[in-house]
Amino acid sequence: DAKTTQPTSMDCAEGRAANLPCNHSTISGNEYVYWYRQIHSQGPQYIIHGLKNNETNEMASLIITEDRKSSTLILPHATLRDTAVYYCIVRLETSGSRLTFGEGTQLTVNP
Amino acid sequence: KAGVTQTPRYLIKTRGQQVTLSCSPISGHRSVSWYQQTPGQGLQFLFEYFSETQRNKGNFPGRFSGRQFSNSRSEMNVSTLELGDSALYLCASSLRSGAPGGNYGYTFGSGTRLTVV
């Protein structure tokens, strides 16, 4: 799995967009970028993943740079319930069942 | 649909004892993975079971073991408990083994918080 670097913490105002960056400069051509989040006292929750193209689902958007060395998770209208630790994971889609979680970014959404 | 159910939610054990934790996956999911989460080490993969077979194993001592039943429910066992085993133990279920995104994305339970005294 490629190494990822995320800021330790970020703040966002409720209702505004939250943009969470992730650097993965050693990513290989077939590795995907996955995002999970963990709300306090709960298990991690899958958010979104992508390979090259930008992706959007009902939870978030994922923007991957053209060189694929970094990506940004966007929560378009953050709510207090989005306060959580966000994990960026880079790995092959078929590299087994293990997920390697780093330290992630603690996002705090403020009223 | 019902989520991933882990029991018990909280547990206190004494050093040297053994413990069994249970995980009921989402109906139809055949893959169950277990993780340990501690403040110092973060989330660490323990093992995965798929169709009653262990598919993958993390770097934990042999005191940590697991199994999966024909209905996909899984148990993990820790023998000879140590203080350092105090942690949140999470299980995740998936339709398919080894595909962590999209429709096959892992769904985690809320965990069992084990305290060893």
Query: What is Rg of chain A?
Result: 13 Å
Strand tally of chain B = 11
Helix vs. strand class of chain A: mainly beta
Give the distance, in angstroms, between the N- and C-terminal Cα atoms of chain A.
Answer: 37 Å
SSE string of chain B: EEEEEEEEEEE
Strand order of the largest sheet of chain A: 1-9-8-3-4
**Termini separation of chain B:** 37 Å
Count, helices of chain B: 0
Helix share bin of chain A: under 10%
Please count the beta strands of chain A (DSSP E, at least 2 residues each). Answer: 9
The percent of residues in helical segments of chain B reads under 10%
The fraction of residues in strands of chain A falls at over 45%
Largest contact between chains: A-B, 23 and 28 residues
Low-pLDDT runs of 5+ residues of chain B are none
For the biggest sheet of chain A, the summary is: 5 strands, mixed
Would you mind describing this structure in some detail?
The complex is a heterodimer of chains A (111) and B (117). Chain A has 111 residues and is mainly β. Chain A is 0% helix and 47% strand. Chain A contains no helices and nine strands. Chain A has strands at residues 9-13, 18-23, 31-38, 45-50, 55-56, 61-64, 70-75, 84-92, 105-110. A five-stranded mixed beta sheet of chain A has the order 1-9-8-3-4, with no helix packed on it. A four-stranded antiparallel beta sheet of chain A has the order 2-7-6-5, with no helix packed on it. In chain A, strand 5 and strand 6 form a beta hairpin. Chain A is globular. With 117 residues, chain B is mainly beta. Chain B is built from no helices and eleven strands. In chain B, the strands form two sheets. In chain B, strands 2, 4, 5, 6, 9, 10 and 11 form a seven-stranded mixed beta sheet that branches. Chain B has a four-stranded antiparallel beta sheet with strand order 1-3-8-7, with no helix packed on it. The mean pLDDT of chain B is 92. At the A-B interface, strand 4 of A face strand 4, strand 5, strand 9 and strand 10 of B.
